[in-house]
């Protein structure tokens, strides 16, 4: 599993390529890794997180005190499976898991 560290995110293509080269089934923290060829991406929806940041910035610019704003937890998550990568690794993804995915890349 590759976490959401900025170091790893900035080296997305290299990490995906190394996982493929060494045939290591890997789960990543963002959907973009699966889109780039990783096996599975599961994590917060980045677009939704940025939208929430914009809402908070707007509240602060309108005079709200940052310390008075509630802590917001993510509510949207992306679950993406790359079937092309699964086949290259010789993995069969159970149909039940495929139905749970938000996106399946073929």
Question: How would you describe this protein?
Answer:
The structure is a single chain. The longest helix is centred in the middle third of the chain and has 16 residues. A four-stranded mixed beta sheet has the order 1-2-3-4. It is 44% helix and 15% strand. The protein is an alpha/beta fold and 106 residues long.
Task: Summarize this structure briefly.
This protein is of the alpha/beta class and 106 residues long. It has six helices and four strands, in the order H-H-E-H-E-H-E-H-H-E.
Sheet/helix structural class:
alpha/beta
Measured by DSSP, the beta-strand proportion falls in: 15-25%
Unreliable segments of 5+ consecutive residues: none
- Determine the fraction of residues in helical runs and give it as a percent range: 40-55%
* H/E element sequence: HHEHEHEHHE
* Number of helical regions: 6
Quick one: overall form?
elongated
Please state the oligomeric state of the protein chains shown: single chain
Q: What is the residue-averaged pLDDT?
A: 94
Number of strands: 4
Distance between the termini: 21 Å
In spatial order, strands of the major sheet run 1-2-3-4
How is the biggest beta sheet arranged? 4 strands, mixed
Radius of gyration: 17 Å
């Amino acid at each position: 599993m590759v976490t959401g560290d900025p170091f790893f995110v900035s080296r997305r293509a290299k990490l995906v390529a190394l996982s493929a080269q060494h045939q290591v089934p890997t789960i990543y923290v963002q959907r973009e890794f699966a889109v780039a060829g990783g096996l599975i991406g599961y994590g917060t929806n980045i677009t939704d997180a940025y939208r929430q940041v914009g809402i908070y910035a707007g509240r602060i610019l309108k005079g709200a005190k940052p310390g008075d704003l509630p802590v917001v937890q993510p509510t949207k998550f992306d679950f993406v499976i790359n079937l092309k990568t699964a086949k290259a690794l010789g993995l069969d993804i159970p149909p039940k898991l495929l139905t749970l995915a938000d996106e399946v890349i073929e």
